[in-house]
Specification:
Elements (H helix, E strand, L loop, with lengths): L5 E3 L4 E2 H8 L8 H12 L9 H12 L6
Antiparallel strand pairs: 1-2
Helix pairs in contact: 1-2, 2-3
């Protein structure tokens, strides 16, 4: 992931913040479980919830190895 962009406006969470929240995970293969872990760290998608799909997309890209920081 070379470009940082805002994902959650309510909690001011960027794509890099999501990647950082998952950085310590040696293996994660469940998008919904990873989403819960990201929420615990960043609190994204706990305000209006409008960014849920965007957050899941970033996590999916990271899981598939398409984007790495």
């Amino acid at each position: 992931m070379t470009e940082n962009y805002q994902i959650c406006k309510c909690k001011n969470v960027s794509s890099f913040d999501i990647a950082d929240a998952l950085r310590d995970h040696e293996k994660f293969d469940d998008v919904l479980r990873a989403f819960e872990d990201v929420q615990k760290v960043t609190h994204c998608s706990t305000g209006c919830g409008g960014c849920r799909d965007k957050v899941l997309n970033v996590i999916s890209e990271l899981l598939m190895g398409h984007d790495r920081i």
